[in-house]
C-alpha cells in the first residue's frame, strides 16, 4: 500500500505520514506525526476494533482520551498502549508536541475469529484499555513495522507476528503459556510441505491446517520443536536453494532471486549476506573452487 500524506490536518499539526500493510486479518499502520504546539485530534477508525502503541515522542507527552476534553486518568508511561473497541472514539492529546511515531493495528474481528477458532477470545476487545504497557507486544509491533513495504517474501513473518500480537492482547493480564512440541510426524509433514512448495509464499493458516491446529498453537509448537519460527525455517531453506543454484549454474542473480521468491537481486543479496556472512558472488567464488 502506498505511503499516505494527510492534507486536512488538525491545528498545530504540520504533517502526518502513514504507511500500512495487512497480514492475517490485521492492518498495521506506521504513523509519523510532526507538530508545533498543543494537539488534540481524532485517531480515526471508530468503526473498527484497534490497538495503538506509542513508539516515540518528542516535546509534550502524548495522551489517549476517550472523550475530547477529559484527561486520561492513568499516568503516562513510555510506549503506552490503548485497546479500543469498535464503535468507540479515541482522541490523541499532547500539550507541546514536536514529533510522535505510533503504531495502529486495526483488527478484522470476523476474520480473526475464523482463523483463531478455539483460541479466539472476544472479551478483552469489548472494553477500552488505556495507557497499559507490554514489552512482548511492543517488540512484535516494532518487528512488524520494520518489514519493508510490499515485501511478498515476508508473508509468513507478518502472519506469525500479527498472530502473536493478537494472542497476547487476548490475554493481557496473564502470562501466555509456552506451547507444547509437535510430534515428529507433524514436524516432518510441515517441513516437507514447505520445502516442496518453495519458492511460493505460504500463509500461516495453511501450515496450521496441515496438522489441524490453530495458528497460535502451531506457531509456538513449531518453534518449540525446531528452535526457529516457520518464517525463519522457510527463509533458511530458500537460502539453501539459492546456494544450490549458485553452484549449479552461472545464472544471473536477478533470475535466481525470482526463482527463489525474493523481490529482486538486492533483496537477495541483503538476506544472503545476513544469513551466510558473504555476498552471493563471493560465496559462489569460494565454494566453486572446493
Brief synopsis:
The protein is of the alpha+beta class. Helix content is 40%, strand content 24%.
Draw up the topology in text.
Layout: E1 4-5, E2 13-23, E3 26-42, E4 49-59, E5 63-65, E6 81-84, E7 91-107, H1 109-116, E8 129-132, H2 135-145, H3 155-170, H4 184-197, H5 204-210, H6 215-226, H7 230-248, H8 253-259, H9 265-276, H10 280-288
Helix pairs in contact: 2-3, 5-6, 7-10, 8-9
Give the % helix. 25-40%
The end-to-end span amounts to: 45 Å
What is the overall number of helices?
10
Instruction: Using the coordinates above, name the CATH class of the largest domain.
Output: Mainly Beta
Helix/strand order: EEEEEEEHEHHHHHHHHH
Strand count, sense and barrel status of the largest sheet are: 8 strands, antiparallel
- State Rg: 22 Å
In total, the number of strands is 8
**C-alpha geometry:** globular
Beta content: 15-25%
CATH H level, superfamily name of the largest domain: Jelly Rolls
CATH architecture of the largest domain: Sandwich
Mean pLDDT: 87
**Low-pLDDT regions:** 172-177
The secondary structure category is: alpha+beta
Protein name: Helix-turn-helix protein
Pfam families: HTH_18
Organism: Neorhizobium alkalisoli
GO molecular function, one term: sequence-specific DNA binding
Explain what you see.
The protein has 290 residues and is of the alpha+beta class. Strands 1, 2, 3, 4, 5, 6, 7 and 8 form an eight-stranded antiparallel sheet that branches. Strand 2 and strand 3 (26-42) form a beta hairpin. The chain contains ten helices and eight strands. The chain folds into two domains: 4-159, Jelly Rolls; 233-288, Homeodomain-like (Arc Repressor Mutant, subunit A, Orthogonal Bundle). Helix 2 (135-145) packs antiparallel against helix 3 (155-170), helix 5 crosses helix 6 and helix 8 (253-259) packs across helix 9 (265-276).
